[in-house]
From TrEMBL:
Record keywords, A-Z: Arsenical resistance, Cell membrane, Membrane, Transmembrane, Transmembrane helix, Transport
Transmembrane segments: 24-43, 55-77, 97-124, 136-154, 174-197, 221-239, 245-265, 286-308, 320-339, 409-431
UniProt cross-references to InterPro entries, sorted A to Z: Arsenical_pump_ArsB
Sequence similarity: Belongs to the ArsB family.
Taxonomic placement: Bacteria, Pseudomonadati, Pseudomonadota, Gammaproteobacteria, Moraxellales
Location of the protein in the cell: Cell membrane
Protein's recorded name: Arsenical pump membrane protein
Tagged with keyword DNA-binding: no
Function: Involved in arsenical resistance. Thought to form the channel of an arsenite pump.
Key word Ubl conjugation present: no
Top-level lineage group: Bacteria
Topology relative to the membrane: Multi-pass membrane protein
């Protein structure tokens, strides 16, 4: 009960975010209380740090890359291209915005898609003179696809990296399993969003007032460097896998290279942006949050939550692979929506690791836990930090979505998408084999 109380109070402060006390310091304070109370021990700090450090610094590096590209106009250029390719037809534009969000989420992580693409989409919708109701359909689509399309690569979601590192899953193997599953997830998301909002999508829109996509580019050198850099980064992930080089080292090297290009290091040309200011914008609080929140959750595991989870997953594993996959995914989703997907991921991983399962069922459950923690947080606003930040961005743009309104949308969209995606995993993984 003490471990649970410490977790609840810590989560309240993380969500509340009192002025001057960010998510990192709130989580770290909770970890300190857990340590002083004997819920966790000094040796647990080393264990937890070993689990989270690679994922955390990979996430920070990806956000720095995303912020630099955003400053250079990369995402604005892409969004304007999509708006023009829509050809003035709203029902063509809607799926194209969803697909754009899916691509950005895959390459730049779900947080990048939600936080960087959303303001750009809002700006374009205002220029197209969409009504607030019409705009809401596109805004919801952008926010939801950011998470439902964050399955394909290890780097598409912090959850993916933590899980893959914990179970020693390589970049290539992960992509081989999850790329086809992600296609199903994106398709299901598009279908559900379309059914929910097709009546709100305008039949036509005027493209005459849209600026040319190239006008969005603020730094041409950074912009043109993005394409080869992203290609080389993906190749590097594959090439360095067998060398067991941490994924954060590869991503960090790419971030440093892009920072050097943006700062015009060794060039006579003047920089178009302040790289130092961008680095300061990076989510450094997530480093403190990762170690702090995971320590608090590890304390819950020490107090017996892992044992309960293992017993439940062990029972699910005896019901056949389909039930085990779907059951694990939905349990993870419910836990993530209640306590946030970051701690939920560790709880699920610990429970699977301690459960008695066959090799096939165990692998299915590992990926189902990822899917549940990637998609499940959309059930509630507190399910992921990305959602909380996304709602904050919308509020700054005068698009306010209440928690009740959000949960109504989340309960309508998430369960069918989650179910179809988990079934796809249960069908695909046995076909793929080990």
């Amino acid at each position: 009960m003490l471990a649970l109380l410490i977790f609840i109070v810590t989560l309240v402060f993380v969500i509340w975010q009192p002025k001057g006390l960010g998510i990192g310091w709130s989580a770290l304070a909770g970890a300190l209380v857990a340590l002083l109370a004997g819920v966790v021990h000094l040796t647990d700090i080393v264990t937890v740090w070993d689990i989270v450090w690679d994922a955390t610094f990979t996430f920070v590096a990806l956000i720095i890359i995303s912020l630099i590209l955003d400053k250079a106009g990369f995402f604005g250029w892409a969004a304007l291209h999509v708006a023009r390719l829509g050809g003035g037809r709203g029902r063509r534009l809607f799926p194209m915005i969803v697909l754009l969000g899916a691509v950005i989420s895959a390459l730049f992580a779900n947080d990048g898609a939600a936080l960087l693409l959303t303001p750009i989409v809002i700006a374009i919708l205002l220029r197209l003179e969409f009504t607030p109701r019409q705009s809401l359909a596109f805004i919801i689509a952008t926010g939801f696809v950011a998470d439902t399309a964050s399955l394909p690569l290890l780097t598409s979601n912090l959850v993916n990296i933590v899980s893959a590192n914990y179970f020693d899953i390589g970049f290539a193997r992960y992509a081989l399993v999850m790329l086809p599953v992600n296609v199903v997830s994106v398709a299901a998301t598009l279908v559900v969003l379309w059914l929910a909002y097709k009546s709100d999508i305008p039949a036509t829109y005027d493209t005459e007032d849209l600026p040319a996509p190239m006008s969005a580019i603020e730094d041409r050198l950074v912009f043109y460097s993005a394409f080869p850099l992203l290609f080389l980064l993906l190749c590097a992930y594959m090439a360095t896998e067998t060398l067991q080089i941490p994924i954060s080292v590869v991503t960090g090297a790419a971030a440093l290279l892009l920072m050097a290009i943006a700062a015009r290091v060794g060039m006579r040309e003047r920089a178009h942006m302040s790289v130092l200011a961008i680095v300061k914008q990076a989510p450094w609080q997530i480093v403190l949050f990762s170690i702090g929140m995971y320590l608090v959750v590890y304390g819950l595991g020490n107090a017996g939550l892992t044992a309960y989870g293992s017993a439940l997953l062990g029972w699910l594993g005896e019901q056949g692979t389909l039930i085990a996959t779907v059951g694990t995914g939905f349990v993870s989703a419910i836990v993530a929506s209640i306590m946030n997907n970051m701690p939920s991921t560790l709880i699920g991983a610990l429970a699977i690791d301690h459960a008695t399962l066959s090799a096939e069922t165990r692998e299915l459950m590992v990926y189902a836990n990822v899917i549940g923690n990637d998609l499940g947080p959309k059930l509630t606003p507190i399910g992921s930090l990305a959602t909380l930040l996304w709602l904050h961005v919308l509020a700054e743009k005068d698009y306010r979505i209440s928690w009740g309104q959000y949960m109504k949308i989340g309960l309508m969209i998430t369960p069918p998408v989650l179910l179809v995606t988990l079934i796809a995993l249960a069908v695909w993984l046995p076909i793929l084999g080990s």
